[in-house]
Amino acid sequence: MPREPTKLEKLTMKLRRWPLTRKIGTPDLARLVHEEALKELQRRKEFFEKWKNNFKTTTDENSIYIQIIGDNKDVIGAINAKHISGTTWSTEFLHVGEYSSERDIFRNLGFGKILFEKLILELKQTKCKKLIFRARYKMVDIYEKLGAKKEKTINIPGFGIKMYFDLTTLKV
Question: Measured in whole angstroms, how far is the alpha carbon of residue 72 from the centre of its chain?
């Protein structure tokens, strides 16, 4: 079965068939904008490939903190989890690009997914069975694609949707 194209690949395919002349006017200008957009996509893809495995993990018996480190020891993204009770952990934050003035270059490349996958692998080593978190409404579909489920509780508007990963059945 063929793999699902990444967001970057989908955007590249979309740009290749985008009728820029309707938006911009002249075919030459449209071609120039199109070429620049493809160069930017390629630059972002190379950036992602360069840094996607550069993790720094800090752990103790009750917490895990994972960062992806870029040039000059800049933090590209970070995630953490704290032990709640028994075999349940909770993630308090996932940030991608929050620590940079150029935060948009880090977004929509897959760093968040990689951070969650790395966290789940670390938690499985601690015998964790459940990771709970609150998701922003616009992120729920993405987390569900990763295997998260919605909690069957009342969700309070403004606080996101309470979700969880069942680590006993989750494949990473």
Answer: 22
